Amino acid sequence: QVQLVESGGGLVQAGDSMRLSCAASGRALSNYFMGWFRQAPGREREFVAAISWTVGSTYYTDSVKGRFTISRDNAKNTLYLQMNSLKPEDTAVYFCATRPLGSTRSYASALGYSYWGRGTQVTVSS
Q: Which residues contact 122 (CB under 8 A, 6 or more apart)?
């Protein structure tokens, strides 16, 4: 199993920056993709960004390209999401998750991810 714990959420104003962290423990992460998803009230969970733990290839949903950066620290087993130029529509609970490399589902599909953290609230005021 993989245990994931998110941190770094909070309340910020539009235009501000914030960095989320996801501390991972358990199985070796070299066999996984890792992703960030978010869920706003009354909406489905949506893909934000993903990264190949070993190679470092990154993927983003269009609405965050150029503003968000996903990265990882292999030595610390920690995933990050740097969020700049935040907008009120970025308000959501943010989750990190792991996806096995052998998954046939798209990296953008929540169904392909096996382990999830409990999430951290990000609120962006206008």
A: 9, 10, 12, 18, 20, 38, 83, 86, 90, 91, 92, 93, 94
